[in-house]
Specification:
The strands form 3 sheets. This protein has a 3-stranded parallel β-sheet with strand order 1-4-7, with no helix packed on it. Helix content is 0%, strand content 55%. The chain contains no helices and 8 strands. The relative contact order is 0.34. With 71 residues, the protein is mainly beta. It is flat, with a radius of gyration of 13 Å.
């Protein structure tokens, strides 16, 4: 859970959750840039699953959150 936070000027991903559920509230995520080596990503918020079964995908609940200037 991320609440009342500022995530700014980050590389690759501002907030990331792998194989888990995510809650983001009252948060600003901005100026997320890709990796210089291969220009990969620049995700504001990233939720993904590798280990979970097909029916057990991770979820995200995002409210009152601003995501801006991501690549």
């Amino acid at each position: 859970t991320v609440r009342g936070s500022l995530i700014e000027t980050a590389l690759f991903s501002g907030i990331s959750a792998e194989d888990s559920d995510l809650v983001v509230e009252r948060t600003v995520v901005r100026d997320i840039v890709p990796q210089a080596s291969n220009l990969a990503a620049g995700f504001g918020i990233r939720v993904y699953g590798f280990e979970l079964g097909f029916t057990d995908r991770p979820t995200a609940q995002i409210s009152q959150t601003l995501i801006e200037r991501t690549s």
